[in-house]
Amino acid sequence: MERIWVSPWLVLWLATVLTCFSNLMGVASALSSGFEENFKVMGSEDHLKTSDDGQVWHLFLDEKAGCGFQTKHRYRFGWFSMKLKLVGGDSAGVVTAYYMCSDLGAGPERDELDLEFLGNRSGQPYTLQTNVYVSGVGGREMRHMLWFDPTQDYHTYSILWNNHQIVFFVDKVPIRVYRNNGKPNNFFPNKKPMYMFSSIWNADDWATRGGIEKTDWKKAPFISSYKKFKADGCRWKQPYPECVSTTTDHWWDQYDAWTLTDNQNMDNSWVGRNLVIYDYCKDHQRYPDTPPECS
Ligand SMILES: *[C@@H]1O[C@H](CO)[C@@H](O)[C@H](O)[C@H]1NC(C)=O
Fold it and tell me: Which family would the database say this protein is a member of (predicted)?
């Protein structure tokens, strides 16, 4: 567990951006309009395939390169959702990430919301790591087990983001609630609009059992699949106040979206009791002073 706060960005830069930088400029015209409307490829364009109807996207990782995609637009607050099916079989060392970030690179001032799926040896369970960054500072990891095998079927992973809370959902279940405490010492990303990204890369220096389990390249390519992207959010346009007013069609900003419902609270407590395997708020060795947002 010692290394879990190593920034995945560093790894992403090495594995994805540098390795396939030469291809960065060419967004394949062969990609479906569904894809092209919303996304741009990051990295090796030949490591991303879309289904014939353009509705499903597959990202490939092999020894040469990983791959990813990003939204063309930035959003400030909203509901961001996607169906994912993760690399099956032996996926140790492989990380599939789905995240939002204010920058296109690992900028020192970036805000970020992460969902990272950490692969494992065949038959051993995936772990879902979530994290929150404000102005380049992260270290807000939680890790969860899932209650199903995420490699068998598509499941929906979503982020609700408004000025009161950030909620990470797996299907209908809120697995993590990160609240804005409204105090001056607050650690809550609410200033910067974010892009949404997804990528697959090799992180066998830290991902599986703390880096002990290495990626088995004989099993490559590793493939994760995506469909039904939804960004129900405020698309950012300058100037800044554009995405601030809480008009009624912005349901994600409305009172009902400021807290969980009773049923969601029950589900969230069930997750807390049964599926949390790491919570930075309880890691007193790492944080002798409990971070302000934890209390
Ligand atoms: C992989 O499986 C092992 C053994 O079941 C488990 O301890 C570990 O948490 C799993 N996940 C990761 C990412 O290492």
Answer: Belongs to the glycosyl hydrolase 16 family.
